[in-house]
Each structure stands twice: as C-alpha cells, then as structure tokens.
Specification:
By secondary structure, the chain is an alpha/beta fold. The chain has one domain: P-loop containing nucleotide triphosphate hydrolases (Rossmann fold), CATH 3.40.50. Helix 1 runs parallel beside helix 7, helix 2 packs parallel to helix 4 and helix 3 packs across helix 4. It binds adenosine-5'-triphosphate. Keywords: ATP-binding, Nucleotide-binding. InterPro entries: FtsK/SpoIIIE/SftA, FtsK_dom, P-loop_NTPase. This is FtsK domain-containing protein.
Amino acid sequence: MTTRGRRRRPSARPWLRLLEVRSDVDETLDDLFEEAEPAGITVPAGVRDLNMSIFDRVFLGIDDVGASVSVPLIYRNLLIGGEPGGGKSSLLNVIVAHAALSLDCRLCLFDGKQVELGQWESCADVFVGPDIRHAIATLQRLQIVMDNRYRYLRWRLRRKIRPNDKFSPILIAIDELAYYTATIGDKKQREDFSGLVRDLVARGRAVGIIVVAATQRPSSDIIPTSLRDLFAYRAAFRCTTDSSSDIILANGWANRGWSATSIPPTSRGTNLLIAEGGVPLLMRTAWLDDDTCGRIATYAAGRRAEARELRITIPDPNAKKRRPLDVVAA
Ligand SMILES: Nc1ncnc2c1ncn2[C@@H]1O[C@H](COP(=O)(O)OP(=O)(O)OP(=O)(O)O)[C@@H](O)[C@H]1O
C-alpha cells in the first residue's frame, strides 16, 4: 500500500473513477470488516493483520485510479476540514480504528457530539465530551506527558520515540475543533484549549503524540495559517468556497486547480489529501458503518483489556529500573 504522491492534473470529473473499488480486507477478517451501505460506493477498511501497530502505514481509502492510499501517521499530524456531511468523521473513524487495533497506541478522544467517536470510548484512555474543563485538563496532562517524555529522551540522549519504546504513542483525535475553540466555554477557556492543541501539534511528534483534528468550519479564525502549517497532512472534504479549501490545503492550491469545491455534494467521503507527496491527491476514504465500528471497538477493547491484564500479572524484571514517567488515565 502506498500513497501516490505523483503530480496529477485534476480531470473534469475524476471522482467518477472511484467507481473502481478495491478491497484490501484480509480474508480472516471478513466478519469484522464488511462493505456497508450508504452513499452508493463504499470502500472497506483494510487491515493487514491482527497485530497492527501505529508505526504501520494507516490505510485510508483509494485514490482516483482505485489504488489504495495509506500513510504513516507516526511523527505526523493530520488536519481534516470540509462542510458538514462531507465525510470527515468517516476518515477520523478509519484512523481511530487502526489506532484502537494497535495495542502499542493509546487513545485520547475529544468529541463534542459524543456519537462520532463514542463507540471507541472503551478503547480510549480518555474520552472528552462537551465539557471544556475536562478538555483543557486532559490537554494539560498530555502536555505534562509530552514534557516528561522529552526529559526522558534527553536523559537517554535520544531524539525520538521508536517501536517497542518505554512509552506508547498517543493518538489525540478531535472531532470538531471549532466546538472547543470557538463555541463552548468562555474566551479564556477557548484560548487555553487552542494554545494547548497548538503546543501538542507543534512539539508532540517526536514523542509519539499524534493529533488528528477535524473541523466543519475551515475559516481563518478556527485554523490560522500558523496552526494549519504545523499539520504535515491535510485533508479537504467538499468546501463551499475556494478560500475554505485553501485554508485547509494551503494558500494557492485552488488557483492551481486543486479546490475542494469541485467535489460534488453527493460524493461523500471524497477529499483532497496532502500527505507524503506534498501535492493534493483525490481520494475516497474507506467507510466503516456503525455496526462494523461497534464490532471492531468491542474486539479492540477486549484485546486491550487482555494486554493490560498481562502487564499487571507478569512481573516486569526491569520494573525497578523504570522511571514512572507518564500515565494518561481517565
Ligand atoms: N467514505 C464514505 N463512503 C461512503 N459514504 C460516506 C463516506 N463518508 C461519509 N459517507 C456518508 O456521508 C455521511 C456523513 O458523513 P460524516 O458524518 O463522516 O460527515 P462529516 O463531515 O463528519 O459531518 P459533520 O461535519 O456533520 O460531522 C455518512 O453518514 C455516510 O452516509
């Protein structure tokens, strides 16, 4: 699975080519991942095996020639924007599913609506709903975790986290950034939230803190350029104006023919993704329906509980040498 980062001129109706759907589903997982109904064409989520890792490439969907699109998420952040109903949460869910099945990754979920990511609550260390104080307190704890991890790396003369490290990567998924940065709470709380997110996005990568944030309000007050540019990956779902599209992708892409306004309203799940290649890639995200999400979440939560039990019951011979550096518990 590779991301096609090659330069491609947008054709008149490239999304039509998404009709060629390719499945990357492992046969043994047919009962976990199945094709689902909604907007006509769906792409099943792909899973390589049961022992996934957050250090693996994350399968996101297919591109306009039907080739699978996957990206490494570790050491990166992803910004997702677009009008309501475009499919932002579906992309977020595909990513959270991969992270939930990766026992080497911890989850912190922020969801003002509570139902977009709610099914993953049992897999998460923290689930934050419509509560700005809980949201800020969680981000403050993550900031402490981040600082402790840097102190540890400095102590070990290292620059970044690696697979099977002393501490696990943490995926922070935020569904509707604007809800916390512009809607609930007072001005100070909203500013605190924005400042903390900015810091985690700016400094968290090397210590395995991955921020994936979605917003249906791609405007410069919600996503100032200085914040947008911290996100290495950006996905623009259908937007109503070229400037909204540019706010997500970066200034100038609309003039060069890459505007998310050209995605038809009916083509849900389709987006322009800027990832490794650095140029927009037209793609359709994989789709996980509610039942499938629920079953994956139950399965992942069970595996996580087993792993926790193993960690608790098997005495660690190196336990004394360890420094209790970070804990992110609910
Ligand atoms: N990848 C996809 N394949 C097929 N249909 C999809 C896909 N993604 C989304 N849809 C359809 O679009 C609907 C809305 O998707 P979703 O909730 O992800 O949008 P959203 O952008 O997050 O909306 P909001 O901003 O209101 O939360 C889904 O219920 C589904 O019917």
